[in-house]
């Protein structure tokens, strides 16, 4: 940026949680130049987690999920406008309208979209939904409020499980079809996947695992689906929860390192070009980014977490305004939460980056526990079920590269390390839900071993 870094032209593509927080942070850091935010949805930035929870339960409407602003970012908002490319040499963002936006610094925060049902004809049947936008949530909530006879949820990841939970809370019959061995298994491993499966069935969910949906049926309106085991599910609403697609197609000709896993960047959120060379003026934040993390072997992490979007936006904004020696890295330990079937599940670290797990507190039987994950003798993650107060302690163990199994005081029973119980994390290719943290570099041993407390 010529002259003072506090003045100039900033463009943010993505009127998202990350985009909004970055715009606010730029102003908080003293940026006084022009700031333009481009977003393809017609709405100002809004919060997505309530869409699969409060909105589906009828406790809130989709149009009340706008994000609160910490301060007015004094931006030129271009909403309902799609970006179609970036010219790195001319330093311009190209818009669908044919207009070009010049920039001195560019932040890409285009996030993800719901993975659609692969058969377009079946996907357009009345009663078939995905859940990502305000419109999606509003339409699905209205359909659930009308009292369908049965809802089919395709995919047992966090979004699919939360939708199924909301349906049961509304008293609706629901079937969940998951290609893998259990719900949530891709994110949390087989042991907690078994607990998730038991909870769903205990709450009356018709859970079908190890099956795929081969066809959606209906004449104009959805009436049911055929499964790979030859069975058929009669239902009048279908929610396709097959994970997310990163919004990178618009960058295909840009020369940036953009692909199905997102846009690769360094730990300072600076985007790589297609040759692996870091750019000085293009930054990435939120779900669309892939970045290396020193606590996890410098693996490229690809996260779909609310907290990561906020933290990364702050780092990106700081580095957009400051020269190299003053730039700071994005080192926040990943964390996320989910509430479903009466359970409060919280995670810190990267559960898939592990070779052993141990139940450090509580038990599967009590449905209240803290499970700690380790890789090559070091703590790398922890997941709590209805035991969230323990999480800060385990975060500290991860940040300090504490030894695994965790030291005395980190668990409420002695370890009998000679009684390992296998707990495989399956290959994501075999799941209909993806992990909320994807390790996109070298993946360590996928075979988790549960060290059973004595």
TrEMBL record:
GO molecular function: oxidoreductase activity, acting on NAD(P)H
A Pfam match: Pyr_redox_2
Superkingdom assignment: Bacteria
Disulfide bond found in the keyword field: no
Reductase C-terminal domain segment(s): 336-406
Cofactor or coenzyme needed: FAD
GO cellular-component term (any): cytoplasm
Key words, A-Z: FAD, Flavoprotein, Oxidoreductase
Domain FAD/NAD(P)-binding stretches: 9-313
Residues that span the membrane, as ranges: none
The protein's name in its UniProt record: FAD-dependent oxidoreductase
Organism whose genome encodes this protein: Streptomyces adustus
Organism phylogeny: Bacteria, Bacillati, Actinomycetota, Actinomycetes, Kitasatosporales
